Amino acid sequence: MPDGSVKVQLLKSSGNPNVDRETLETMSKWRYDPQSIPEGGVRSRVTVTYEEEGSSFQRQNEERRRREVDRRRERERQAEQEQQQRVEEERKRTPASATTVTPEKPAPSAPSTPVSPSVPPVENIAPPPAPEPAPVEAAPAPVEAGPLQNLFQ
Question: Could you tell me where the beta strands, DSSP code E, fall in the chain?
């Protein structure tokens, strides 16, 4: 309505006429800012579900919400299990030689203390030889400048 008031209608009784009356009175006091509506207005119907604290309706809704949360969590758990199964199946299908194994960095060792007398000392290993440089090709022979090339010089 242009003044910000709302029209309230009871669709379903709570079963208690006093509660119904108080709910209608309270909701009839609701107001909206008419400036927030575009020129010409937008009429819309809104359904409001009212739960009285401690009512059987509230308890039923709380139980329904709990079941919905449990179902959502179960679906998420199943989706995670399916994803894990797909990953495992992919690992089984991929040959071991095609997988890349990243070696772990060894933990820092104690300074030159032999672990066991039966372990031989590690010899210094020379680094691999450096690769030979690629052969250098001779530069191509110069090309005579044509009539257009002389314009840009």
Answer: none
The answer to whether the CB of 31 falls within 8 A of the CB of 5 is yes
Amino acid letter for position 153 = Q
What's the token pair of residue 23? 């709910």
Query: Which of 30, 29, 32, 13 lies closest to 21, judged by CA?
Result: 13
Paired with 31 in beta bridges are: 5
The single residue listed with the structure tokens 């959502």 is 72
Cβ(6)–Cβ(39) below 8 Å: no
**73, containing H or E segment:** helix 56-93
Could you read off the pLDDT of 19-71 as tens digits, one per residue? Answer: 888 888 988 898 878 777 777 667 777 787 777 777 788 888 899 999 999 99
